[in-house]
Structure formats: structure tokens, C-alpha cells
């Protein structure tokens, strides 16, 4: 997060026009893009992103209500008020949940700095963010949803729904890969979460692409029905709802 704050400060994000003109340390646009790309790759790399939240966050689940804020701390550039004492802050700071939350906020902050120029970095972080938005922990999912909203705003889009619909082909291709080769591991679980979110935000132009994802989902369910039935059923429910909203296009999916 320190690196993100350095980039944000060097770019003059949040400074008034007068203060920015007095800003002595400037960073070129190309340097800003390269630094942001390196940070996005670092944050979303498997060793830093695919962490076992459910196993390691433990007692923090009972504190989920404390994370229900309306702004990202990284974007607001203010310390979290709900963390209480320094001892409690230190305890939370070293948890997996806090690490993920900081990384998620970092992605949103970089989008805020780059604005529309964040577009080339969208695909590398869109799938991971949507996956975290489906986490069972409110601490993670709520932060991911706020980040998606901030990124949509930075790119000039009305809502995260437009992020999904504009990139549905990429998302479903990644989902198919995850369902085919991820099995019941982390990759397979991430694919199911992203598929469910994509289906919930589908529109007319995305439905023809869903046929392959639906077939992959049913094939994966046939293989892993005894281990991940609940997660698969939630994705199937989202598929049924998507089809129900567009019954006139059912023939595209079924034939």
C-alpha cells in the first residue's frame, strides 16, 4: 500500500491545481503507467491473491459488520476509524483479510489515478475483483464491490454492471478455463463465483456467449457434484434466472 500511496502522491491525485503547480517531484505519464502495471501484476499474482481467507481470518468473521463502510480507505486517504485500539489494529493488520483488502483498495486507487488510461489494466484485475466480490467474508466482498464501483467510475462507466457486460467474452472464457482445469481447487471455486456474478449482470448481447459456459458448468457439476454441490447450485440458479429474464433467446442457448 505504501507503493500505491507513492504513486498516488507522485501523480498529484487529489491535489488542487495550485498545489499541483507547486509540486516539485513530477512523474511522466509513461512512468505512471509502468508503475501501475507492475503493481497490478504484483497484487493479483496467485501467491498474493489466492489466500485462504476462510481458514486464516478466523475470529474476524464476527467483526464483519465493522467493514460495512461506504468508501474505500485507500481512496479516502484516511485511517479506518473502526479499528479501535493500536493493539487491535496490529492484530487485524497482519491477517489475510486485511492484506487482501489493502490490495483491493490499491487497485481502485490506481484506477482513480489513471482514469480512462486504466483500461489496458482492466482485464488483469477484473476477474480477480469479481471473484473476491463473491467471497463469503463481508470484509472482502464489500471492499471488492466498492473497488469495482470506483474502477467503473474511473473509466467513465455508470456502474460495475457495465464493466461486466463490456468484458463478458473475456470473463466467460476465463470461467470456462477455470471450470475445465480448476476442479475443486481455488481456480475452480473462483471460476464459479465469477460465473455467478457474470450471469447476474448479463444482458441481451452477452446471452449468446453463455452457451459454452453453461455446458462447461454442467460438465463440471457432473464430475464434482459430491464436493462442491452448493457452489455449483448457486451458479445454476443464476443461470436459470438469466435465461428466465430472456426467454425469447432460449433457443440460442439450448441449440
Task: Describe the 3D structure.
One of its GO terms (cellular component) is cytoplasm. InterPro entries: ARM-like, TELO2-interacting_protein_1, TTI1_rpt. With 255 residues, the chain is mainly α. It has two domains: 1-160, no CATH class; 167-255, no CATH class. Helices cover 67% and strands 0% of the residues. It has 16 helices and no strands. The protein has helices spanning 2-10, 17-21, 29-44, 46-49, 53-56, 73-76, 86-93, 96-114, 122-133, 138-154, 160-166, 168-181, 186-200, 210-224, 229-245, 250-254. Helix 12 (168-181) runs antiparallel to helix 13 (186-200) and helix 12 packs parallel to helix 14.
Query: How many distinct beta strands?
Result: 0
Order of helical and strand elements: HHHHHHHHHHHHHHHH
Note poorly predicted spans.
15-22, 56-68, 74-86
Major sheet: none
What is the helix fraction of residues, given as a range? 55-70%
Instruction: Identify the overall geometry.
Output: globular
The amount of beta strand, in percent, is under 5%
pLDDT averaged residue by residue: 73
Question: What does the oligomeric state look like here?
Answer: single chain
- Contiguous helical run count: 16
Sheet/helix structural class: mainly alpha
Tell me the count of domains.
2
Distance between the termini: 49 Å
Radius of gyration: 20 Å
Amino acid at each position: 500500500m505504501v507503493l500505491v500511496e507513492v504513486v498516488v502522491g507522485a501523480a498529484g491525485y487529489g491535489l488542487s491545481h495550485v498545489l499541483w503547480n507547486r509540486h516539485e517531484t513530477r512523474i511522466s505519464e509513461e512512468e505512471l503507467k509502468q508503475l501501475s502495471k507492475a503493481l497490478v501484476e504484483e497484487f493479483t499474482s496467485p501467491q498474493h491473491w489466492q489466500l485462504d481467507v476462510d481458514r486464516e481470518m478466523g475470529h474476524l468473521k464476527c467483526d464483519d459488520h465493522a467493514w460495512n463502510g461506504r468508501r474505500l480507505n485507500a481512496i479516502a486517504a484516511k485511517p479506518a476509524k473502526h479499528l479501535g485500539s493500536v493493539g487491535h489494529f496490529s492484530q487485524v493488520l497482519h491477517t489475510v483479510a486485511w492484506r487482501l483488502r489493502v490490495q483491493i483498495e490499491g487497485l481502485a486507487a490506481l484506477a482513480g489515478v489513471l482514469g480512462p488510461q486504466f483500461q489496458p489494466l482492466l482485464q488483469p484485475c477484473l476477474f480477480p475483483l469479481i471473484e473476491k466480490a463473491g467471497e463469503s467474508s463481508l470484509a472482502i466482498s464489500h471492499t471488492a464491490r466498492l473497488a469495482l464501483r470506483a474502477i467503473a467510475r474511473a473509466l467513465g462507466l455508470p456502474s460495475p454492471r457495465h464493466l461486466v457486460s463490456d468484458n463478458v467474452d473475456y470473463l466467460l472464457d476465463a470461467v470456462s478455463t477455470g471450470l475445465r482445469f480448476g476442479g475443486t481447487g481455488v481456480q475452480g471455486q473462483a471460476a464459479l463465483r465469477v460465473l455467478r456474478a457474470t450471469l447476474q449482470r448479463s444482458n441481451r448481447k452477452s446471452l449468446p456467449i453463455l452457451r459454452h459456459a453453461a455446458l462447461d458448468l454442467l460438465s463440471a457439476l457432473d464430475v464434482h457434484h459430491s464436493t462442491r454441490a452448493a457452489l455449483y447450485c448457486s451458479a445454476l440458479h443464476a443461470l436459470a434466472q438469466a435465461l428466465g429474464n430472456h426467454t425469447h433467446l432460449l433457443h440460442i442457448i439450448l441449440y
